[in-house]
């Protein structure tokens, strides 16, 4: 969620308010720098990439949807600039891969599926992602409210890190069956939500079993 | 070996520096892993997605900046404190780690170098707002 203060800032920047631009930089430059520095150790290069990120944000402003969280949006731009930089300097590992490395890299960079191979429309994919994000967001909110951090940990390890049930059980200190139950209940909720939005949960591998 | 979901997170650029380095080293060494990565890219090309990717890209479980600040100050309740630690260390969320190091730097007062750096970013880009 974009905060009111971010939304106001974006509004002012749209009206070419240089002070608002300065505020935006003061607010986000530090975390973007740290984010870039994680991948690139050269400080001058980091600074350039952060600059390119802000410039990229400004140029994409006409397409920026205020409902998107500003911070997440800036991180996404920074991430693209990092990949561009690594490619430019020939340091992207996919460039060293033996077969068709550049094709691979382009797939990642362009983010635009080739028209011939698109099975479903981009619009539909966005709807599907949004439905899952909403369902998960509601689940996480409910668990946070109940102070049930264990459930959040279980699902985050399973879905975000791809850990196996038995490893999650060992880490959290519950039984494998309990992990399986937590997964089952969460997947069921998400699937129902996706179906409720008139979409098929089958396009998400994690929801297949339901 | 590298879990498939970690490879997907690598594509999303949401891994910590340590994990990113591990994945890149493994990619350089193992053809099987590169093949797996290619497979993942093709799946994405076909428009297949995963719940994990949606979670990562929307930063669904990331603590707020305020919470991270309170974590640093050590004033969070034990439950949330433990969770933030888990998210930073075990999940290794790149976004939250970046926020944390920025907050740590702020605690030590903004150094002149950081102020200068910020000024340079401003001056290199502020012209954009006038050009219209
Ligand atoms: Zn996070």
Describe the structure.
The complex is a heterodimer of chains A (210) and B (132). Chain A has 210 residues and is an all-alpha fold. Chain A contains ten helices and no strands. Chain A is globular, with a radius of gyration of 21 Å. In chain A, helix 3 packs across helix 4 and helix 8 packs antiparallel against helix 9. Chain A folds into two domains: 106 residues, RNA polymerase sigma factor, region 2, helix turn helix motif (Rna Polymerase Sigma Factor, Chain: A, Orthogonal Bundle), CATH 1.10.1740.10; 91 residues, Orthogonal Bundle (Arc Repressor Mutant, subunit A), CATH 1.10.10. Chain B has 132 residues and is mostly helical. Chain B folds into two domains: 54 residues, no CATH class; 67 residues, no CATH class. Helices cover 73% and strands 0% of the residues of chain B. The longest helix of chain B is centred in the N-terminal third of the chain and has 15 residues. Chain B is globular, with a radius of gyration of 19 Å. The mean pLDDT of chain B is 90. Chains A and B meet through helix 2, helix 3, helix 4, helix 5 and helix 6 of A and helix 1, helix 2, helix 3, helix 4 and helix 6 of B.
